[in-house]
Amino acid sequence: MNAPLRGDVRHVAKNMRVDLRLIADMIAPGARVLDIGCGDGTLIAHLFHTKGCDARGIEIDMAEVTRAIAFGLPVMHGDADTDLAHYAADAFDYVVLSRTLQAVEKPHEVLRQMLRISARAVISFPNFGHWLVRWQLLATGRMPMTPTWDKPWYATPNIHPCTIRDFFALCEAEGYVVERWLAADEAGRRSPWRRSPRLANLFGEQGLFLLRRG
Amino acid sequence: MLNPLSIAHQHVRFADGMVLDCGARLPSLEVAYRTYGTLNGERTNAVLVCHALTGDQYVAEPHPLTGRPGWWETVVGPGRPIDTDRFFVICANVLGGCMGSTGPRSVRDDDKGDGVALWGTAFPPVTIGDMVRAQQRLITHLGIHRLFAVVGGSMGGMQALQWAASYPERVFAAVPVAAAAYHSAQNIAFHEVGRQAIFADPDWQGGRYWQTGRVPARGLAVARMAAHITYLSEQALTRKFGRRQRGAENAAPQSGGGGGVGLGMFDEIFEVESYLRHQGSTFVRRFDANSYLTITRAMDYFDLAQDHDGDLASAFRNARTRFCLVSFSSDWLFPTAESRAVARALNRAGANVSFVEIESDKGHDAFLLDEPGFHRTLAGFLAGCAEHAGLA
């Protein structure tokens, strides 16, 4: 059983999404981590194998949960909107929410729970402020369709799109400290607009934030 | 079929007995068990499999009474999810059982015993906690301090939870399958129907049927039939039997058509009936009615939260055990919501939990059947735990 497990983990780690690498870079070795919406567990496998983290996951898609557990990863079926309330305060050092915030029912409540059960939160989301999105809406008067926002309005699971500047505003309103942030393109390569949220909001396809309680 | 009492089961006897949760003391304790695979030098690769209500210790070998394959041969064996090439697998007949462990069919050995009479209904009530305590005696006797894993379905899952709550430092991983932290009112109700069926059989004779040799076969068979329905699902029954009737000669008399052929009241008309009757009649040949009463009661009493001031999370406070909870989508006896409630309590306690619901139309029995998703999950979870435990 061990040999195929390790082989599989190496396989997924090699093909890990670049934005997951950026997230992993924000997490200290040996930390207790909860990855919300962990999919097949690629990130938690990476954090365990390369950083010795106690990494666990929650995933809503049952097929992904089965796959993750079959890889030997501690993943439970659950929902960001309803399951975070069942964790003890400060149960983790980091909670990760990767490209899921826009799809939950109550994003601000999910954030609140994340920073209750963990000292720090790592959040990535697709940026609705990207120039192509703005241009398409302006020029065609129709909901934008881009590589990031790739489903028609009636079929998208993304019910709460936001922009990078929106997210800064929410953090301020809720009293969260932005320890680090960056914008990246769809593939997860860093964008160079580190100093200007306005430029990042125009040219970044996704935002990545490391928050802590204020 | 052999006489059940004529079989010698592998067992260990603890002459100092055991005090039960009810306060009664068993003067001596016998635990019948089977093992598979080899215990490693460090004694760290032991997996305890806990059986369900009507299961026994013959997990992965032919049953000595029925000759049928072991009840979990698809799960336990070389190259199976619980791989006996890798793990040392132990399964014990539960306390109160009828396959060699101390129970109602044992010779009564307290001061009211005469050395001949059996315990029968005088056997004190036992709990899931008592069963686990008896297993713990066995594990210690085998020289094992920490079990690598405790795995069980249904009542076996209750035992896995109880193990993690009672002996957290002795369980590295626990896999409660199709289980719950308490027995629900509906489940108690079904058990009560079964018990009443046994009581209503004149051959039960107040539980002293061993004196006459006439066993309450009809009552126990009805109990088994009622229980068996709860182990299945409507989809599974429909898929397997539908409304099909037995045999071509018994084919359905169509309304207005050729007379009353097959319109009997007392025959087995539908296939599902003969299936249930078969389940009932084979069961009584291998199981003891008083054991059935004792063990169903033990399940009914089970409420892990109640033992911890109503807070299930506190049963697992500071648990280092890694948990994997598995439920099945069509199981209405131990529905997914019950496993989810356990998972959430474990989250509150800060435990390491995996939890998945396997899609299946086979009802509660799915844990015993060929469910590749479940088997992949179990194998993967154990492999991951083995890595964390440093097992080669």
Task: Describe the model.
The complex is a heterodimer of chains A (214) and B (392). With 214 residues, chain A is of the alpha/beta class. Chain A has one domain (2-213): Vaccinia Virus protein VP39 (Rossmann fold), CATH 3.40.50.150. Chain A has helices at residues 2-14, 18-25, 42-51, 62-70, 80-83, 107-117, 131-140, 164-174, 197-203, and strands at residues 32-36, 54-59, 75-77, 92-98, 118-126, 176-184, 206-213. A seven-stranded mixed sheet of chain A has the order 3-2-1-4-5-7-6, sandwiched between helices. In chain A, β2 (54-59), α4 and β3 form a beta-alpha-beta unit. The longest helix of chain A has 13 residues, at 2-14. Mean pLDDT of chain A is 90; it is low at 1-14. With 392 residues, chain B is of the alpha/beta class. Chain B has two domains: 4-185 and 292-389, Alpha/Beta hydrolase fold, catalytic domain (Rossmann fold), CATH 3.40.50; 190-278, Rna Polymerase Sigma Factor, Chain: A, CATH 1.10.1740.110. In chain B, 33% of the residues lie in helices and 15% in strands. Chain B has helices at 128-141, 155-166, 185-200, 217-231, 234-240, 271-286, 289-301, 312-315, 336-348, 372-389; strands at residues 11-14, 18-19, 25-26, 29-36, 46-50, 76-77, 82-83, 88-92, 147-153, 171-177, 322-328, 352-358. In chain B, α3 runs antiparallel to α7 and α4 (217-231) crosses α6 (271-286). The longest helix of chain B has 18 residues, at 372-389. Chain B starts with 10 loop residues before the first strand and ends with a helix. Residues 254-260 of chain B have low confidence and may be disordered.
For the structure shown, list the relevant keywords.
heterodimer; A: 214 residues; alpha/beta; Rossmann fold; seven-stranded mixed sheet; globular; disordered N terminus; B: 392 residues; Rna Polymerase Sigma Factor, Chain: A; 2 domains; eight-stranded mixed sheet; two-stranded antiparallel ribbon; 10 helices
